[in-house]
Amino acid sequence: xxxxxQISNIVLHFGGIKALEDVxxxxxxxxxxxxxxxxxxxxxxxxxxxxxxxxxxxxxIKLGDRGIIGLPQHQIAALGIGxxxxxxxxxxxMTVVENIMLGRHLHMKSGIIKGGVYWGSAKxxxxxxxxxxxxxxxxxxxxxxxxxxxxxxxxxxxxxIGVARAMAMEPQILLLDEPSTGMNRKEKENLARILLRLKxxxxxxxxxxxxxxxxxxxxxxxIVVLDYGKKIAEGIPEEVLRAPQVIEAYxxxxxxxxxxxxx
Length: 263
Prior knowledge:
Layout: E1 3-14, E2 17-28, E3 32-36, H1 43-50, E4 58-63, E5 66-67, H2 73-80, E6 81-83, H3 96-101, H4 112-117, H5 121-139, H6 155-167, E7 173-177, H7 185-201, E8 206-209, H8 213-219, E9 222-227, E10 230-235, H9 237-240, H10 244-262
Parallel strand pairs: 3-8, 3-9, 6-7, 7-8
Antiparallel strand pairs: 1-2, 1-4, 4-5, 9-10
């Protein structure tokens, strides 16, 4: 599999706070890379560095062969990086269709005048984008919600809409920031199915920040573990989740020792 994104030796400081220290990993085509760690470990900081919200003080991030550190956020998005957020960032009074359509803005070339007249090339462009949105609505199984304003929907359904909007960009890679937060068990099962379909059918690589470790263990191809801004483990789930340093990071040395003694 070809490498889509390479993060190399990223360093990020906020004054005297070391948010990230020498973090490196990569994501390949069709691969789910889970980014896990305790609260405050720096997981979302990594995503923010990739999409241009934060600018690392050292290191390199390459999308394909192109370095992207220092580029404006809109240029990074245009290169093919889709992003969802931990807290739903939707327009609450717009419908599901309208919210997902916003993700197509990079593919809309008609100007204000043509768009206002809604004729000729502008109409053809709009129709083509609507067809793409309908495909996503079907893929994410949002058909029964399509005409509803998003504020009327559950938090879990809103999370699916956020992922669908990111996919409307036709990204090369998808950054997912705790998509299962606020979901019930059934919604998490649906999320797992959707992520596997994105991987297998569309071969979209994903960098997935997540706190639901059993879900990560079932779905991820590789896991990268952060603790206090440093990478402490990387590998396949079966090995990483059993690593002593990972257990210590999550439980603390006291609980780790207790569990080991009881075992």
